[in-house]
Amino acid sequence: MLARWMPNVFVNPGDPISAEYVGYFDHRKKMEDIGAGAVGRVATRNSVKDLLLGVGRAGGCEPLHLFPSAVLTVNRGPSPDFKAAHGIRQWWRPDLALECRTHLYY
Any idea where the domains of the chain sit in the sequence? Predict the structure, then answer.
């Protein structure tokens, strides 16, 4: 069952492609913290960008970038540019500043 699958996601906030994962899971946590977890589960199924682009409508695409749960590892170290923030070499550095959290929303 796909809903029980929990990927390990490695992201860098300086990478606009992967930064959406940080915001997505931060928002889900905030909704749970204020007691609005049920609303958060519905509200975070699609991003505002996806809603504007027609995701979920007939002919639209599925929001494949959203996972119900994940182990999110965030590189909080500095990144000089997009190429460094998006590249794989950042994960090989010995001086990484990592933040790792498990987000469970089944």
Answer: 2-103
Give the phi and the psi of residue 70 in degrees, each rounded to 5: -165, 155
Angle at 25 between CA 14 and CA 87, to 5 degrees: 30
pTM attached to this predicted model: 0.69
Q: 3-13: per-residue pLDDT in tens? A: 577 899 999 99
The amino acid present at 105, given as its one-letter code, is: Y
69 and 105 Cβ atoms separated by less than 8 Å:
yes
Distance (Å, whole) CA 64 – CA 15:
18
pLDDT digits (tens, 9 = 90+) for 45-58: 555 555 556 555 55
Query: Which three-class secondary structure string do you get for 39-72?
Result: HHHHHCCCCHHHHHHCCCCCCCCCCCCCCCCEEE
